[in-house]
Each structure stands twice: as C-alpha cells, then as structure tokens.
Amino acid sequence: MNRGAEARPLQIIRDALPQLTGAKLRVAEAILNDPDEVERGSITWLAKQADTSPTTITRLSIAWGYTGFPDLRAAIANENGRDVQAGWESDIGSEVTPESAPADVLRILGSLQFKAVRSAIELVDLQAIDSAATAIAKAKRVHIFAEWGDTPPATELYFRLFRIGVPVWIHAGAYEAEVGAGLLGKEDVALVLSRSGESEIARTFLERAKENRAIAQLVTGTPESTLGQLADISMFTGTGLGGSWTEYFAGRSSDGLICGLLWMLVAQKVPDSFEVPAPSAVAKPIRAEAGKKNQRRRQ
Known about the structure:
It comes from Orlajensenia leifsoniae. Pfam families: HTH_6, SIS. This protein has helices spanning 9-16, 22-33, 35-40, 43-50, 54-63, 69-91, 102-123, 126-138, 151-163, 174-183, 200-211, 226-230, 245-269, 279-298, and strands at residues 142-146, 168-171, 189-193, 215-220, 233-236. By secondary structure, it is α/β, with parallel strands linked by helices. The chain has a five-stranded parallel β-sheet with strand order 2-1-3-4-5, sandwiched between helices. Helix 12 links the parallel strand 4 (215-220) and strand 5 (233-236). Helix 4 (43-50) crosses helix 5. The N and C termini lie far apart (98 Å).
C-alpha cells in the first residue's frame, strides 16, 4: 500500500528524522523548513538546497512510500491545501470561500444577519428586558462590562444611556471592573454583555455587585451559561457564540437589536431626559462666547 495515502507527508518526514543522516537528513530538513517552496519547486532546486543529488531525493521519496519526487511534491501540496482550507473554515466559516464573488459575500452576510435578527425577535423575553430597563432608569449608578467582541454593542449602549442622563460607566479590564462593582449599592445595576456567557472577570464583576445588593443583568446568546445562571435578569439575543467569524459577525445584529430595545425602553421611562440640549446646540453659544472673549482681548 502506498504509505503516502495513509498519512500526511510532512508528518512522515518528521517521524523519519531520527533515523536520517547526511544528505538524507539535509533533504528532510529542507522540505520541513519550507514546504511551500518545495511544492512549487523542482527536484533540481531541492537538490541544490540540500547540497545533494536528484537521485538521492528520488530514493528518499520512494523510501517514504511515494513513487518518486513528483508524487511526494503533490502530496505536500495537497496537505498544504487542506491546512489552508481547514484554517479558513475554522476562522471565517464554510459559507464564504476564498473564491466567493463580492456579491455572494454580501448576500451571505446579509442573509445571516437577517436570520440573527429574526431569531432575536422570535426569542426575546420582553418582560425581562422591560424589567431591566426599569432598573436602569431608577438606578443611581449603572456599570457596564464587556470584553473583546462584545465591546462594540456595549459601547454603543453606554453612549446612548449617557446621552439621556443615565449615570453610567463602562469597564473592560479586570481591576477596573472589580472597583466599579465595589462602588455599586442597593438597586444599582451591573450589566454584562457576553455572547458566550463565560468569563471569569465578568463572573467576579457580577458576584461583587450582588454582594452590594446591586441588580445583576446580562445580555447573552447563551442563557444557560455560568453568567446566565448568576444574573438576576438575563436577556437572550437569540444568537450564540458560533464557531466562526461569519457566525459571530451575524450575531452583532441581534446584539445590537436587543441593546437598542433596552435603550429605547429606558428612554421611555425617562422622557424628560430629552430636554438636555444636543451637543450641537451646546457648542454654538460656547463658540460664540469664546469669539467675544477673543475680540475683547484684541481690543
């Protein structure tokens, strides 16, 4: 049986290293050091790299279970191709390929986001979100915590709550989050955004907040998670962590929808907050006053 069909060629070569010496060892090392060049290069090129003859390479290829160097080179190319494909699918996902046309990429991403939003609408617990909004509207302090990919929707929610006068802070680091939780009191709110619902820092943040009798809230795609069990109010987005970037990116739509809904419900409970002047309205008199001061100085 052809040994090359049973195992990966580069692993075969690695396994053979302890038994190789001289020119054969140099050939093996040259292949392992740069398999990409080997799959593109000729037997003459490899012989030059290993300071040996093409005949030695042919004999070594046969010893490893291949019909010759062309067969070995094809096996290496096939292995590299599988590795690239596996890496792409692990990171990006299988829906989009390196050959996908831009229009197809757009269609696929749009379809996945639409699916995530539809899932959020179907699975949302309106009573839970309304309860969370009521607590935020009444709280003297609201502290938000998020990490990595959960940060964008958390930051958006922070800015919108800040805009309507909610006393809100946002944290990303462990020490900062712990201090923030320690500042919370009875009926304040500790809100975590975590798609996975698994984070030691977030768990400590919520536990510390609950010790101070604050209300622990969670926006998550995994309600049965550790944080989901810990939170007083858990808001399900309908989209879990996923196994690739494509799936995770789709969930941004459901994350944003639930956070947007939460903010709107808070805003409904504090409508007087919209009397606060918009930034552009505040900036005009400030600039006008600054202009008057500069004019007086010139006089």
